[in-house]
Design brief:
Number of strands: 9
Structural class: alpha/beta
Distance between the termini: 34 Å
């Protein structure tokens, strides 16, 4: 691909109003940045400011042909990334945090280029885009946050200072982007706002409790994961470390027990009863049952065996399961276990959110998201409220039922509203977003599905709380500071 001169960046003409209060002096800003770097130094993540190789020109996805110049490369940690600069660049940048976590030991170059294609709408709207593939697969929220910050630095080193910079995170990437905002977002000039879409915002120590419940409830009814003839292991492991089970093998066992993807008329009475009980107790929709069970199997194994050295961060002590044909028998027979406090602390430190942000945050969430339940938004609002930062949050909801992607018109509407908020200090409202979307959709024809009147129920109404699990933040800023002084705390990169 032909090399092009570095695009010119329009000068920033208006200081964001929400930042003026924290720009009292250069000394205060310097001290704050120093304090943040000191805290981050205790976390098991590498420096995000390590030198990186220069991006090289690459082919753009077909949806951006003639609309952008694209680049790929690897940073100093070996992380693959993708960058796109529109031919009609507005001077601002979107830094994208992808979901998952994907499993595997290497950085996958296809991840960042695939996400560029999926969220090409942001480039079409005039924003440059930069996304990291992260240095490896597997769990590690702070690691992914450092790699996300790294790609921002790569972009600035190559193209110069941007007009404004926004974070975008989808799915688990919402957790990552929120962690970036808390860890790196206080440095003046780094980021100007955050867009979180269908985000997993409950954090790691509580955000997967429904999958803990699925793992034990499934085994109670099905008894085939593991089978009685196979080596036993505690279910909090997800899967024993040396197991060769594949996703296809897990799907076969799920079909065997529940007939989950068969015509209901083809299921046996026992399969239908098992399926009814599992869905009723866990609240997981049938169409997402397999994906949640995969996470509770393979990703749990990664978290426990690979990232936490075999220690258990999960608990179902004190949980009473309800909704089955026989709740008494279920609660008497389901496997119970308590978390290792140090393992739970490490998972919390890595992924839980304190709510200590200084940037405007706009969220967009499908009401019927089958993967990241919309009640994650209640957890995040409670987290920011507990930190005294709820005034920096605007949440919006759509009558959609997909997790991995929403309407292009809604992404474009949300990004424009976030940009106006950062420039003027005036936040959007759910109704103003709904009102603005139809005009934007004339360019996309994707539809507008905002529901301005919707309010999600509390997180505990969807995910059975553990004792002490109703208060937010799940990790306070004080706990984060204290834990950061512990050698090796968290999850290593």
């Amino acid at each position: 691909m032909q090399q092009h001169p570095t695009p010119r960046v329009p000068a920033r003409t208006t200081a964001p109003l929400y930042r003026r209060g924290r720009r009292r002096s250069a000394l205060v800003a310097a001290l704050l940045a120093t304090a943040l770097l000191t805290t981050a130094a205790h976390a098991p993540v590498v420096r995000a400011d390590a030198p990186a190789a220069s991006p090289e020109a690459a082919d753009c996805p077909s949806v951006l042909a003639e609309k952008a110049r694209c680049y790929t490369g690897r940073d100093a940690q070996g992380v693959h990334y993708a960058i796109a600069v529109p031919t009609r660049w507005n001077g601002s940048l979107v830094v994208h945090a992808h979901g998952g976590p994907d499993l595997g030991e290497a950085s996958d170059p296809a991840r960042s280029t695939g996400d560029l294609e999926r969220w090409a709408v942001m480039v079409k709207e005039g924003y440059a885009w930069a996304g990291s593939s992260y240095r490896r697969g597997g769990y590690g929220t702070r690691m992914a946050a450092a790699d996300t910050e790294s790609v921002r630095r790569v972009f600035v080193d190559r193209f110069g200072r941007t007009g404004r910079t926004y974070l975008h995170g989808q799915s688990w990437g919402g957790n990552v982007a929120a962690k970036v905002a808390e860890t790196y977002g206080r440095k003046p000039g780094a980021y100007d706002g955050v867009l979180l879409t269908n985000g997993v915002l409950g954090g790691g120590s509580r955000g997967y409790d429904h999958r803990v419940d699925l793992r034990v409830v499934y085994q109670y009814y099905c008894g085939n994961h593991p089978r009685p003839t196979e080596p036993r292991y505690p279910l909090w492991q997800g899967l024993r470390p040396d197991s060769t089970m594949t996703a296809a093998g897990l799907r076969s066992r799920l079909r065997e027990c529940t007939g989950f993807d068969a015509d209901p008329a083809a299921r046996t009475p026992l399969q239908q009863r098992n399926l009814d009980d599992i869905l009723a107790v866990t609240g997981i929709p049938e169409r997402a049952l397999e994906s949640h069970l995969r996470f509770a199997t393979f990703t749990f194994r990664d978290i426990v065996s690979t990232r936490l050295g075999g220690r258990n961060p999960f608990s179902n002590q004190g949980v009473r399961y309800a909704g089955s044909h026989d709740d008494r028998a279920l609660n008497a027979g389901v496997e119970r276990f308590a978390a290792d406090p140090a393992a739970r602390r490490d998972l919390s430190f890595d992924s839980d959110l304190t709510g200590s942000i200084s940037l405007p945050v706009l969220t967009l969430h499908a009401i019927d998201d089958p993967t990241a339940f919309v009640e994650h938004e209640s957890a995040y609002r409670a987290t920011l409220r507990g930190a005294g930062r709820a005034h920096l949050l605007v949440q919006s909801f759509t009558r959609e039922s997909e997790h991995s992607g929403l309407s292009d018109a809604e992404y474009a509407t949300s990004l424009a509203a976030l940009d106006r908020w950062a420039r003027t200090g005036h936040p959007p409202t759910p109704r103003s977003l709904a009102a603005a979307c139809p005009a934007v959709d004339r360019a996309y024809g994707a539809g507008c599905f905002y529901d301005p009147a919707f309010t999600p129920a509390p997180y505990a109404s969807r995910v059975l709380p553990r004792p002490g699990g109703r208060h937010w933040p799940a990790m306070t800023a004080g706990q984060e500071r204290a834990w950061s002084r512990i050698d090796g705390v968290g999850i290593a990169p």
